[in-house]
Specification:
The structure is a homotrimer of 129-residue chains. Chain A is of the alpha+beta class and 129 residues long. The first copy, chain A, has helices at residues 19-29, 56-68, 82-91, and strands at residues 2-8, 14-17, 34-39, 45-51, 94-100, 103-105, 110-116, 122-128. In chain A, the strands form two sheets. In chain A, strands 1-8-3-5-6 form a five-stranded antiparallel sheet. Chain A starts with a strand and ends with a strand.
Chain lengths: 129, 129, 129
């Protein structure tokens, strides 16, 4: 079954920790052991797994991505969001995480982070377990 | 079953939309619901999911990747394609997409894009559904 | 079943070919055909698939990643390893590879590479087949 999770973003570039929401979906699914596939159905956003303890990691990641892929760089795409498309491809649209004993298993410091690169918007995450 | 799809590229760096070919493979497989794993068996090419409506997104992505990872940068690898190997690792070799009602499901603007970084060549994409 | 593989790194940034170890896990599992999901449970390391024939490809990839994401760049995170977190998100935490006839199948030149960005450390790779 394909489950759709809502994510609201409030800034143009914003990294949102969605670990708790994904954990809830996994627990509700009743699956005891398996894999959980996460998919971002947008072309100017992505999914990554990184530290969710110190929020400054997300701040640094967002700032450094904008240094690597600047907002303006003689792009051809006329919508003014080429940087967001490129950041999305660098970060990636899908992640696969594991389910054990009916719960999501991640490393000690890991969280699942939705990466908004062209917000604010109402976004979705698709999940299959 | 592992299905192999052919992709021909005509330039050194070329981003090719392979969504229609992957959709055909999914429909032919008869699978109604599940996940479709895509794998690029090459070390100088990759797979990404991004906009397939305006082709300038692909142009911008290719150009920006070559700005981030220049063709020459004091590399040690003697084959003259280190930039292609590095771009491949930034973009990634695998993608996981969902199948619903016997068809591939992607976001409104999404396409599956084969990223050639050291062409022109005859390439393969491996698919498991 | 979730299998945990040990990886020891000896330098701050080190790319380690773990293909042989993953192949051994696949063969021991007895699975004849399917997918093998690899997951890195760390936030300052990642997994990539790239050339394992000429070691200079790994050297070039490590050096270029440090040019793209420098060790120091006015980061806020106070642990002195922001670059490692950012490199980890660019490379990614998960990979999906295929199993055929009881063995891992990769392209001719491909290997599975554990990317240490904040070593030396004792690390784990999680595997589900």
């Amino acid at each position: 079954m394909l489950i759709k999770l809502d994510v609201s973003t409030r800034q143009r570039i914003e990294l949102v920790d969605i670990t708790a929401e994904v954990k809830r979906v996994v627990k509700t699914s009743g699956v005891r052991e398996g894999v959980c596939h996460l998919f971002c159905p947008h072309t100017t956003a992505g999914l990554t797994i990184n530290e969710n303890a110190d929020p400054s990691v997300k701040t640094d990641l967002a700032a450094e991505l904008s240094r690597i892929v600047p907002y303006s760089d003689n792009y051809f795409h006329l919508e003014g969001n080429s940087d967001a498309h490129i950041k999305a491809s660098l970060i990636g649209a899908s992640e696969t995480v594991f389910v054990e004993n009916g719960d999501l298993v991640l490393g000690t410091w890991q969280g699942i982070i939705f990466c908004e690169f062209d917000g604010p918007r109402q976004r979705k995450i698709w999940i299959k377990i």
